Amino acid sequence: MSKIHVMSDILANKIAAGEVVEKIASVVKELVENSIDAGSKKIIVNLKESGTKLIEVIDDGSGMDKEDALLSFQRHATSKISKEDDLFFINTLGFRGEALASIAAVSKVDMKTSQGSDGTHIHIEGGKLITNEKSDARKGTTIKVEDLFYNTPARLKYLKSLQTELANVTAFIEKLALSHENISFTLTNNDNKIVYTSGSGDLLKVIHEIYGYTVSSNMIEINNSNDDYDISGYICKPTILKSTKSHMNVIVNGRVVSNNQVNKAINEGYFKFKPDIKYPVVVLKIDTDPTLIDVNIHPSKNDIKFSKLDALSELITKTISDALTNTLLVKEVEEKAPMQTPTYEEAIVVEELLTDDNNNEQLTLTQEVVETKDNYSDVKIKVEESSKVRENKNEEIRNLVLEPKAIIKKTYIVAEGEDGLYLIDQHAAHERINYEKTMKEFKEKKINRTSMLIPLTIELSSSDFIKIKEHFDTLESFGFICEEFGINTVVVKEHPTWLRNGYEDETIRKVLDLIIDEKEFDEMKFNDRVIATIACKSSVRANEDISLEQARGILKDLVLCDNPYNCAHGRPTIIHYSTYELEKMFKRVMN
Ligand code: ZN
Ligand code: ZN
Q1: Residues 198, 369 contacting (CB under 8 angstroms)
Q2: Can you give the pLDDT at residue 47?
Q3: pLDDT value at 111 more than 50
């Protein structure tokens, strides 16, 4: 190669570097994905000053011979990737070619690599080869990238704050670890350990190693499939929620991707179980025939297109929602933590606790390993149990006899059971009973209608009127018979017998509002909301005088519900203090 040619190559690399190397995380991505491709089982990433001073990647992969080592720093075309789909057939994660050359053009790169016999040591500064010699023969590759952008200082300015860069690298390594549970990852910054996973091959353990005990012990395992897609992984109980979507990890055929539709489907599964502004911790693995997906090959994006997306979304939503309904909440009551769906404030507290944990984590490697092991066996048992517990627990509560003793604040029933004290929210409990009853009759299409003595006429805005008119059929399926009645006016002539006397108008208006407020009409959600509304409106209210006899009836029906623990909107219905807990609180027992 002539000198001129080399010069132009360096220039080209410097220019290309601007595209490939835009942040520390993209350099880390290139290096670590090379390590994964080399079949490494253990990958250590050490940063100094968030990677601006040093990015070191040590792996135990196959290493390179002398020729390949040199070649890896030269620009070579990536033309072998001719169309997007090819990416999944080439068994690599990213696309190489220019990346290493670009990185070497704007930093000082030092690489030692060996396939096990003799090793190669290469040192390059600003794209110029300084050293190329024999080196020791540890199998694998160690590559150091020092002083990134030292020769293009203008580029340095594009980097975000040290903290942001580090956060990006951390998020990237965590996602890689979740998608490669067989590989052990370590990430340090200024000698502080930030991420460590053991490469155990156990996904729940990786979740434990990344998110800690609070999260991992509150996960639910999921597993399902349709004709085209297999889904599996873990979802968190709604007691663990985050303020960002970034912990919804989606892994398709072993590759971390982001896709709004899939995120939406996950969120839908949590519908009723969490506030809209909070997001769950989820590790969802989707496996499918590669021909059904299409990956955007832009290096910084991980977007993906799915064929038969609707069926996939439905599968995800249903699997999550069933898993939550089936395993949730039951366990919590047993543990005397009665809040199933946390309030916003609580969710934030949990979040802060978690964040705190992460920041304080500066243990040495060996300490961490021991700790993780101890905790983890507990996690495994907890998560496995929570799937079994529902059956037993349901039997237990069905046979529970609750004797109401008093009603305080015209809202809370104080009851005694065999094992201690129970507080029951009279409205929430009654609403749950009515919700299940109404839902059952709706599903069995056993809806009795009654004519309104005085038909209810409701005047609407033009746009609201159009929406309502479109859903006359939907309304009829619930037993509301509506007709057009002049300009922008609807008349309701019949309603289901479920409605509580004296609250008919209020309930009907509320149901119409549900249609008007629905942004994208979704039948399943809508049905649920209507039934929750009807149940709410036909139940005794808070602040309403009821007799102990009425309370006894509510308690009897409540324990027979499929989910006696929550109202139709996810609020708790019942709080239990066991005899033991009472004794503990009054210091009659000491532990
Ligand atoms: Zn209510
Ligand atoms: Zn409610």
Answers
A1: yes
A2: 97
A3: yes
Do residues 459 and 489 make contact, with C-beta atoms less than 8 angstroms apart? Answer: yes
CA distances, 98 to each of 30, 95, 132, 517, 572 (Å): 10, 9, 20, 51, 57
For residue 76, what is the DSSP state? -
What's the rounded Cα separation, in Å, for the pair 175 and 183?
12
**What distance in Å separates the CA atoms of residue 573 and residue 415, rounded to the nearest whole number?**
13
Amino acid sitting at position 290 = P
Nearest ligand to the CA of 427 is: 1
Q: How many Å apart are CA 583 and CA 576, to the nearest integer?
A: 14
Ion ligand 1 neighbours (CB, 5 A) are 431, 536
Q: What is the pLDDT of residue 394?
A: 62
Distance 573 CA to ligand 1 centre (A): 11
Q: How far apart are CA 223 and CA 233, in angstroms?
A: 7
Please tell me the distance between residue 567's alpha carbon and the centre of ligand 2 in angstroms: 5
CA 341–ligand 2 middle distance (angstroms)? 12
Among 272, 268, 270, 275, CA closest to 314: 268
For the chain, domains (ranges, CATH) are: 9-159 (3.30.565.10), 198-392 (3.30.230.10), 449-496+499-537 (3.30.1370.100)
Residue 410 has pLDDT above 70, yes or no: yes
Distance between CA atoms of 164 and 158, rounded to whole angstroms? 12
CA of 416 to the centre of ligand 2 (A): 24
109, amino acid identity = V
How many A from CA of 274 to the centre of ligand 2?
Answer: 13
Q: How much is the mean pLDDT over the chain?
A: 82
pTM value is: 0.65
Please tell me the distance from the alpha carbon of residue 476 to that of residue 483, in angstroms, as a whole number. Answer: 10
500 Cα: distance to centroid of ligand 2 (angstroms): 16
Interval between CA 558 and ligand 1 midpoint (Å): 15
Q: Indicate which ligand has the atom closest to the C-alpha of 540.
A: 1
Query: What local confidence, expressed as pLDDT, does residue 380 receive?
Result: 81
CB-based neighbours (< 5 A) of ligand 2, an ion: 431, 567-569
The pLDDT of residue 359 is above 70: no
Which residue in the block uniquely carries the two structure tokens 């961490």?
368
Please tell me the number of the ligand nearest to residue 571's CA. Answer: 2
pLDDT tens digits, residue range 485-534? 989 999 999 999 989 888 999 999 999 998 988 877 778 788 888 999 99
Q: Are 145 and 116 in contact (CB under 8 A)?
A: no
- pLDDT digits 0-9 by tens, 217-234: 889 999 999 999 999 999
